[in-house]
Fold this sequence. Notes:
Distance between the termini: 55 Å
Radius of gyration: 22 Å
CATH topology of the largest domain: Fumarylacetoacetate hydrolase, domain 2
Number of helices: 11
Low-confidence stretches: none
Helix content: 10-25%
Shape: globular
Number of domains: 2
Amino acid sequence: MSNTNLLNETHNPALSSWVKSANVENCDFPIQNLPFASFKRKHSEEALRAGVAIGDQVVDLKALYELNIFEGDAQLALEKCCSAQLNDFMSMGKRFWSALRQALSLSLTQGAAHEAKLASCLVAQTDVEYALPCQIGDYTDFYTSIHHATSVGKKFRPDNPLLPNYKWVPIGYHGRSSSIEVSGSDFKRPKGQTKAPTATEPSFGPCKRLDYEMEVGIFIGNGNDLGAPISIENAEDHVFGMCLFNDWSARDIQGWEYQPLGPFLSKSFASTVSPWIVTFEALAPFRAAWTRDEADPQPMPYLESQQNRDLGSLDLNLQVLIETQAMRKAGEKPVQLSQSNFKDSYWTVAQMVAHHTVNGCNLRAGDMFGSGTQSGPNPEEAGSMLELSNAGSEPITLPNGETRTFLEDGDAIIMKGWCKKSGSARIGFGEVNATILAAD
């Protein structure tokens, strides 16, 4: 199987849009992307509704539905996009997602017959605010980067950094969905119990080792019945799309609480997602072969397929930037902390879906997976401060002379993502950002 089997006319790199901003070089949202979000105009009493990004504009899908210019599956899909959140549309399945994507692509292409009508549905992105794109019923955080797992393991378990199950099973834990918020949602530094290595008893107070985690969010579309596993061959048909995900972490709280049952309060105080869900279909040109080192255990049959070998990987660049309070006051731009790539993930999206359901667990539309911190093999590709600062022992010096081991109040973390290669249109994910506020 090749990428060609997954491509259709919506991926044509020669397509251009009558929305001129969509044709600008390095635009995140060209006509080949068409990601989904929930939005309304800033400071308005409008109801939230679904929108699709094109250039620097948002197509108001409720307004488009009311024009009644689409037909068949595309119009049925549009009807489900009139709600504040996308769960009903996501539950419809691949046939309807693709039909709406194709209809939007045709209508937004240069010279389209419906240009004048669609133009009336556009709202400038600078004039809107976002909500979570869907109700996230359940959230599972995976641990798919072997580089991150090994690096963190060395800090928590120097004698046994990578536990023996890691190379056999996609590790994950059930997280807290209620504290996931959309980009721009600032949060207070968490408080909790911590225990210093030299202390005889734990203490209570604000977290001192606050960290970010550069992750990818994976949204489930149509789910499965309880007791009916999803095979790896069909797994991708259940994936609606992906976003950027910052899984904020309180490392000192985590170090005290994580044994024997894993993370709890160290992770549940805040997590932040980018507003736009880039559909899995839009990412087809950037699918790549997935391999497993011959010296490692090979996947069990339920985690193995030729399609996963041929196209299970995704070439997605991930960047983390920091803007400190001092930088903000001085009018300085955010600076890069690290850059990694999702293609270095040890487990694929299809393997995550297949494993999650192999015991009969039922997934539902809007459920989200976190990929786990995406770190690459090189030090500058680390997806967390824990790794970049070697657990706080090696301070990072920023261009303005400030140093960081972990994050301070007033720091903003900005994450960006994009797919880019010769012969395909660049697909961007926008950004996810939030600023740390002082604890009460």
